Amino acid sequence: MLIPSLLASTLVATSVVAKHCQNLSVPVTIRARNGVFNVATLRDNHDATTFFANFTKPKANFSNEVLLGYQTIDNTYDISVKFCQPDTGYGQTVQLLTHGIGFDKTYWDLSYNAYNYSYIDLAVDEYGFSTLSIDRLGIGNSSIADPLSIIQVPTELSAIYELTMMLRRGGLPNVPWAFSKIVHVGHSLGSILSYNLAAMDPTASDGLILTGFSQDSAYIDATFDAWASQLVRNNEPRRFGDLPTGYLTWANASSNEKTFLYPGFFDPAILQFSESNKEPYTTGEVLTLGSSPFTIPEFKGPVQVLVGNQDFIFCGGDCLATGDPALAGTSIPGEVAKAFPAAKAFEAYIQPNTGHAINLHYNATGAYKATQAFLISHGLGST
Ligand SMILES: *[C@@H]1O[C@H](CO)[C@@H](O)[C@H](O)[C@H]1NC(C)=O
Ligand SMILES: *[C@@H]1O[C@H](CO)[C@@H](O)[C@H](O)[C@H]1NC(C)=O
Ligand SMILES: *[C@@H]1O[C@H](CO)[C@@H](O)[C@H](O)[C@H]1NC(C)=O
Ligand SMILES: *[C@@H]1O[C@H](CO)[C@@H](O)[C@H](O)[C@H]1NC(C)=O
Ligand SMILES: *[C@@H]1O[C@H](CO)[C@@H](O)[C@H](O)[C@H]1NC(C)=O
Ligand SMILES: *[C@@H]1O[C@H](CO)[C@@H](O)[C@H](O)[C@H]1NC(C)=O
Ligand SMILES: *[C@@H]1O[C@H](CO)[C@@H](O)[C@H](O)[C@H]1NC(C)=O
């Protein structure tokens, strides 16, 4: 008798809400002010090395040295998105999920191990949110364009802004619903973009979840050193043989592990999975990464900064090591509070035993739950 009743309760517990998803390619009119950079087209891996040697030179600002001016981009590109909703309806809140460098929208819905690392499964099935996960412009199944002049932070930001406006007015193709609350959840470069969105228009977002993020750029050069970048067409000819030379990737699984993962707390096979599904980054992205304002005094929504304690890229491997005795008891991500003087709430959540790519660690679901709880406690739940 025991076994059937256990089985019955398991079935009941897991069949309450199920997610419905659709893949869409959304034409988006992008308007942005991009940098015009005087960098010669990379010819080979040697040029990729030289590009980063230039970029990481101490006490210099390579982006500024090669900046010739700005140009206005006004063009329509396709953004590949996946929209998911619970079968109970759209709800009031949609989470717009933006991935970071090295990933695409599947970061939020990893097929690995029967999807038990899926952020989307948890947010939709267990918490009733709708989600829109996007491939950033230039990445995944979104439009490919010139990696130096077009694929930059301002154009990627414009795409996110336009998709946000579509969700607000019920204008996303096949999703005839005007969401009253839109939360922007980012990882790494996706967090930088979500942050910049709130800076550009503080009313565009109702809440920010910035994962794998801080404002400490001290470890970026060490990250680029560990990456030992190559042209992605050389490194991954089977998947990316046709991409222009300004599309780059890190050298190998060792570079990936050092900068994205915390040894001992991830499944070794997920490193191979992630390495064989890695996505590139562009010279234009690298040159425009550091252009965010330091504070967003007008943003009034709640902000959670959720970072793996051992994040290499944004904390140098220890988020509690602020390096300043006056900041004892605080954390590097906690310093981001100063950027949001008017935020309704601010939380720096340090996820234990976790590196930069939070979603690839054993306890990823622990981190996701902390995010859903934060949203619910600040009026941004699904209902
Ligand atoms: C969306 O695309 C993914 C990746 O190609 C695929 O696994 C999934 O089945 C698609 N979903 C739908 C609803 O078509
Ligand atoms: C790196 O900087 C040197 C010296 O300014 C320049 O000649 C070279 O073209 C640059 N290379 C790349 C790939 O940025
Ligand atoms: C470097 O130069 C770029 C382009 O002028 C600028 O946006 C950025 O703020 C500068 N970075 C620093 C740290 O000064
Ligand atoms: C997924 O399942 C595997 C095997 O049971 C487990 O080791 C891992 O921690 C789980 N991961 C998540 C994120 O739940
Ligand atoms: C892109 O499209 C291909 C072909 O439909 C699919 O296999 C792949 O999973 C898609 N990737 C993403 C990131 O949507
Ligand atoms: C990975 O690439 C780095 C940088 O080129 C190199 O030092 C290292 O030996 C490589 N590791 C493996 C396992 O190939
Ligand atoms: C998993 O993450 C949750 C949320 O941060 C935390 O409370 C819990 O202690 C973590 N579990 C382990 C085994 O680290």
TrEMBL record:
<feature type="domain" description="AB hydrolase-1">
    <location>
        <begin position="96"/>
        <end position="361"/>
    </location>
</feature>
<dbReference type="InterPro" id="IPR029058">
    <property type="entry name" value="AB_hydrolase_fold"/>
</dbReference>
<dbReference type="InterPro" id="IPR000073">
    <property type="entry name" value="AB_hydrolase_1"/>
</dbReference>
<keyword id="KW-0732">Signal</keyword>
<dbReference type="Pfam" id="PF12697">
    <property type="entry name" value="Abhydrolase_6"/>
</dbReference>
<protein>
    <recommendedName>
        <fullName>AB hydrolase-1 domain-containing protein</fullName>
    </recommendedName>
</protein>
<feature type="signal peptide">
    <location>
        <begin position="1"/>
        <end position="18"/>
    </location>
</feature>
